[in-house]
Amino acid sequence: MATGGLKKECLYKILVIGELGTGKTSIIKRYVHQFFSQHYRATIGVDFALKVINWDPNTIIRLQLWDIAGQERFGNMTRVYYKEAVGAFIVFDVTRAATFEAVVKWKQDLDAKVQLADGSPIPCVLLANKCDQQKEGVVNNANKMNEYCEEHKFTAWFETSAKENINIEEAAKTLVKQILNNDMTNDNGRSINKDNSKFPLDGHLEDIAEKRICNC
Hints:
- The chain has helices at about 25-35, 75-80, 95-100, 105-115, 140-150, 170-185, 190-195, 205-210; strands at about 10-20, 45-55, 60-70, 85-95, 125-130, 155-160, 190.
- It is an alpha/beta fold.
- Strands 1, 2, 3, 4, 5, 6 and 7 form a 7-stranded mixed beta sheet that branches.
- The protein starts with 7 loop residues before the first strand and ends with a helix.
- Keywords: GTP-binding, Lipoprotein, Membrane, Nucleotide-binding, Prenylation.
- It comes from Rhodnius neglectus.
């Protein structure tokens, strides 16, 4: 049993966005449940998953992962979905260059609709997914990818594969570390122990999301 007082518990809202069919749901299922399937249906609206991490002996982190449907694109609903997020993954499919070309639009939309308390962009990690398959486009050049991520202010980028479980844990750790660093100055973390409450989601937002969840 733990001694020396209560552990610090933080709940963070993380967005997972990108074009339709890039593997967002597969990445979340692999990360949260260590499960992979070839047969997910397309997410409609938004889906949720919760990942609990024993970060260190004194800290428990709960990640509320919001799986935003690719077909939501950049509509008005995304502003509601993005509310209170403190980090994000943008996912593209390395076998379809067009999904990479769309990344900059997703990043611009994200930065326009949600910011940290000091007005700066929330941390965002770029996932080059399906790296177990034949890659096409810029993703074949690591130097160009590094330049791209620096230009568009991504925290980092990783080649990932939900099927083969490649780099998903590493990408998540990188994002969480950046969120924790931001907490030191911006107080974005929501401490559950302070008031025994969960993440302060807007009630209207929860109503919308519950109606639009797809269990795929």
